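Researcher: Structure for this, please.
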Amino acid sequence: TLFPYTTLFRSDGLLRTTTLGDTTIGMFALTMPDQQAATAVAQTIAVTQIDGGLKADDNRALQGVTVIGSVPASQPTAYRAVYVLYNRTIFVEVFGPDRDAVLATFDSVIKQQVTHAPPTVRGGR
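Model: Predicted structure, token format:
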């Protein structure tokens, strides 16, 4: 996998990044005091992304995972997902100049991540 599951929970916050060609992948895991705080942070991240001009992508969203992406004509393309895992807020970002590459990478990464660590809060955004 691109982000080993075991490395996510060693500290209060963790950022892992990697690149595949021109596409950059980032994963943030933020440990909060409890699930309620993690949920509030996830909601704030989602709202902030939308307020910043990204659009919710309900076609890519999964139960408990909010997906937000740039509009088709945007350069570079950015896709982000946020969800809660117990008392952690998980935030995944994929961006780059090639929209098709970004979307393919995002779909693969989020599928891997949710398989390894599924959301524990199933509410909507």
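Researcher: Any notable elements?
Model: Confidence is low (pLDDT under 50) at residues 1-11. The longest helix spans residues 99-116.
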